[in-house]
């Protein structure tokens, strides 16, 4: 398969326009059209719907774009690996992480990695499941530390479980519900809620908890992508949130409310592109993360 034609495909998918792609690629539009036609003939499917002023991917086109992106990532990885072997250059490593790892074992793993590899520079990007998955798909991070689920949305990523954590309903110490004894789910509906804006899996679990008992789930009137803001808001209000218990670490002013029923656990660990090359620095950090999770009582 002609790699140049795959580059044409990716450019048209990005711009949505034959004219803009031809300008971007510094070529004539007829030449670009011939390249796309050759690719469509080779795969035996129409990759774009030709609209009067735009090009829209078909379902076959979306498959080809995803595969083409993977091919170019593999080629880029091969170049990086060869260059590293040739030059033994200092390494830059970027990783993505959910909130619990950011304040838990990840800083320790980074400290150990920089001790072993003094020349490495490490960048950490925080976020939630979908945000982090997009980062690793785009090649912006080597791997991510996040919740692992069986959701087909993440089936393109290789997952390695490392630890589990239990969910809890969290409030400030001194909250009216803290003194109310063992609580039932309807008790929780009498107070406002705050939730992480991008924590899709936590929201699904919270909704399911109430729906299985025939109750309408609480609606979070306040949402934020900042874990620091959420904890501060909890400390200063009667709001509740749904989070894993390690989130209480370092926040003595917050507490888990006692419920009459058990709450679900989640599995968390590493996600990365399947068959992706990892730099020695990434491999070293993963080695430390695996070791630390085996030794730790919690994340």
TrEMBL record:
- PROSITE patterns from the UniProt entry: HTH_LYSR (PS50931)
Give yes or no: UniProt keyword Transcription regulation: yes
Domain called HTH lysR-type: residue spans: 1-58
* Annotated GO CC locations: cytosol
Give the GO molecular function terms.
Answer: DNA binding; DNA-binding transcription factor activity
Pfam families for the chain: HTH_1, LysR_substrate
- Please give the name of this protein: Galactose-binding protein regulator
> Keywords on this record?
DNA-binding, Transcription, Transcription regulation
* PANTHER family on file: HTH-TYPE TRANSCRIPTIONAL REGULATOR YBHD, NITROGEN ASSIMILATION TRANSCRIPTIONAL ACTIVATOR-RELATED
Key word Transcription present: yes
InterPro entries for this protein: HTH-type_LysR_regulators, LysR_HTH_N, LysR_subst-bd, WH-like_DNA-bd_sf, WH_DNA-bd_sf
Family per record: Belongs to the LysR transcriptional regulatory family.
């Amino acid at each position: 398969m002609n790699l140049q034609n795959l580059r044409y495909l990716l450019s048209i998918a990005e711009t949505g326009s034959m004219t803009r792609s031809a300008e971007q690629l510094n070529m004539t539009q007829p030449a670009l059209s011939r390249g796309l036609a050759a690719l469509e003939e080779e795969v035996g499917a129409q990759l774009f719907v030709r609209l009067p002023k735009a090009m829209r991917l078909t379902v076959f086109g979306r498959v080809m774009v995803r595969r083409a992106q993977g091919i170019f990532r593999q080629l880029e990885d091969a170049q990086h690996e060869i260059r590293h072997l040739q030059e033994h250059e200092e390494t830059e490593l970027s990783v993505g992480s959910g909130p619990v790892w950011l304040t838990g074992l990840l800083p320790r793993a980074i400290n150990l990695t920089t001790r072993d590899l003094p020349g490495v520079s490490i960048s950490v990007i925080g976020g939630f499941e979908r945000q982090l998955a997009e980062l690793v798909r785009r090649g912006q991070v080597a791997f991510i530390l996040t919740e692992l689920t069986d959701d087909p949305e993440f089936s393109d990523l290789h997952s390695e479980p490392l630890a589990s954590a239990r969910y809890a309903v969290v409030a400030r110490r001194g909250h009216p519900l803290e003194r109310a004894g063992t609580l039932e789910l309807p008790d929780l509906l009498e107070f406002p809620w705050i939730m992480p804006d991008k924590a899709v899996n936590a929201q699904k679990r919270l909704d399911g908890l109430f729906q299985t008992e025939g109750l309408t789930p609480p609606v979070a009137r306040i949402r934020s992508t900042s874990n620091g803001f959420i904890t501060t808001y909890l400390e200063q209000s009667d709001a509740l949130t749904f989070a894993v218990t390690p989130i209480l670490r370092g926040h003595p002013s917050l507490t888990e409310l006692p419920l009459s029923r058990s709450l679900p656990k989640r599995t968390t660990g590493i996600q990365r592109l399947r068959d992706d090359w990892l730099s020695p620095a990434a491999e070293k950090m993963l080695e430390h993360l695996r070791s630390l999770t085996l030794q730790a009582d919690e994340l």
